[in-house]
Amino acid sequence: xxxxxxxxLVGLELHRxxxxxxxxxxxxxxxxxxxxxxxxxxxxxxxxxxxxxxLEVSRNTVLLAYEQLLIEGYVRGKVxxxxxxxxxxxxxxxxxxxxxxxxxxxxxxxxxGGIFRRSGQRRPTNGSPRRPxxxxxxxxxxxxxxxxxxLLARSPRPFxxxxxxxxxxxxxxxxxLLARxxxxxxxxxxGGKHPSGYRPLRExxxxxxxxxxxxxxxxxxxxLVGGSQQGLDLAARVLLGPRAAVWVENPGxxxxxxxxxxxxxxxxxxxxxxxxxxxxxxxxxxRHARMALVTPSHQFPLGATMSVARRLLLxxxxxxxNAWILEDDYNSEYRYRGQPLPALQGLDRNGxxxxxxxxxxxLFPGWRLGYLVVPPDxxxxxxxxxxxxxxxxxxxNQAVLADFIAEGHFGxxxxxxxxxxxxxxxxxxxxxxxxxxxxxxxxTAEAGMHLVGWLPAGTSDVEAARHCAYQGIDVLxxxxxxxxxIRKHGLLLGYAAFDERSIVDGVQQMAAALQRRDRKPSRxxxxxxxxx
Length: 532
Ligand SMILES: Cc1ncc(COP(=O)(O)O)c(C=O)c1O
Fold this sequence. Notes:
The protein is α/β, with parallel strands linked by helices and 532 residues long. It folds into 3 domains: 22-92, Arc Repressor Mutant, subunit A (Orthogonal Bundle), CATH 1.10.10.10; 144-167 and 411-515, Aspartate Aminotransferase, domain 1 (Alpha-Beta Complex); 196-408, Type I PLP-dependent aspartate aminotransferase-like (Major domain) (Aspartate Aminotransferase, domain 2).
């Protein structure tokens, strides 16, 4: 087969004096050229050897850049057949679609739709015909909170999800930083009010997100909140009017589902597959949603990474329909294979993405710190909402975290935890393969702090979780994450917080519990079965 001639990348400039690594600059340059439509689908990139010669860099630099583009789906490659711009990125999606003409006064299109919508102001209609009848699912049974509330308040037992390695946190160092801040308290720190949170921390977070997550942001766009849950709450208040429709992943993050229900939104469950949220299915189901809540880096709970094609489609929908995308990037730090994928926010050219991050996974959930990164024209709305909802988390906590980041401890801790969690995941998979065959199918994952174990067909995950709880094991049934039933039943197993001994013993207890599941089902709720 004759190969097409490679495109020329001679215009690409690399800056050797920049602090950004050369492979990263090269990756950025090619990616930008693809997104701007300068490199079209099917175009062949130069070979790594010839590009390295042209740019006078090592071949490794080019290999690293190509590898990252490959992982993210911008290019496709075959050994000996060259590297091509992926054809699943249709031209029409690449250049940002033109914004629809505003029907109201200038700026009306980007105005929020929640508590900050002026009375009498009409929701922009975008000239679309009357909306079809509005779907939505009935409110969940919130009595489950009595159950989960009791479970979450106790110290974690295997395999509670969402808990980091508390046994490996640098508590002594943390104590020293805390004491140092305490000794040097200034009236400005404790007596002042800090719009959107402690400025030095907002600067450090903005720099971290630009560098590690590819966000386009300034410190002014960063709003500190008391964990992701408060971020979700602010987003609902600011952006959603009464009965607004929200696309949610099904399965997805149950505490967000309940929060949006409580805020009066209508949930539109959207299936997820190996490429993340199925945007086409969502559009077919109800295209006029006001917001989409997504976890593109690591879909919660199933773990898929959203493909670039889906990301672009989602952004196109949001720009075209004046909808918002709430990107929950809850544990992107923990990816064990490949580099972490840049956040969706970095691809947004029309200010439609609200980015949400948490420190619950890197520090510990009780510190209650998270952050929002909002588009520039939403800064006022969000900081006012934050002020009305009680400002921000305690300022001293923020100052301690700022020191932790600025002095390099944050980066070191993440690196240490990444290899610890990969090891713990390996232990769990090994133990499960040894003890749970036929009871629960558990496989490795590329990222995250939990695994999904699949139950044999016809087994109830709630019932299985109940048997596990009797045996001293906390697992979350997958069905709790579903707004609409899915066919398969599974259990979510957190591993980050548990050492090898607890993992091996925990799996043994699980095996005993799951072998017992055929017995007469218990009538007791999970919480009753786990009371000490
Ligand atoms: C999908 C998802 N988002 C966010 C969070 C973090 O929540 P928070 O910051 O409120 O502790 C979690 C924690 O388990 C999560 O699984």
